[in-house]
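Human: For the file, kindly provide a plain-text protein record giving the amino acid sequence and the backbone structure tokens, at your earliest convenience.
Assistant:
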Amino acid sequence: MDLDAVGGPGANQELFEEILSIEEEICWEISLPVSASNRGLIRFFNKEATKAYFIQDTIQKLMRAKAKFSFQTEEAILNLFRAA
């Protein structure tokens, strides 16, 4: 359901909370931190795209974000050891 179609977060707080919960669960399932940028990868903006395209595109974006996050995390740990 499109949150904007029902008046946005202020008009339907229950739906908004449900959407946030689903976004959090998706981030946790693929080991990404729950952040505005990662949530933004999940949101559907192109109403002309098919659901299949959206799902495939979102999975690719999430996997790239996960790889980038993993690399940054490993780099941060290495830097801690180098500084010690």
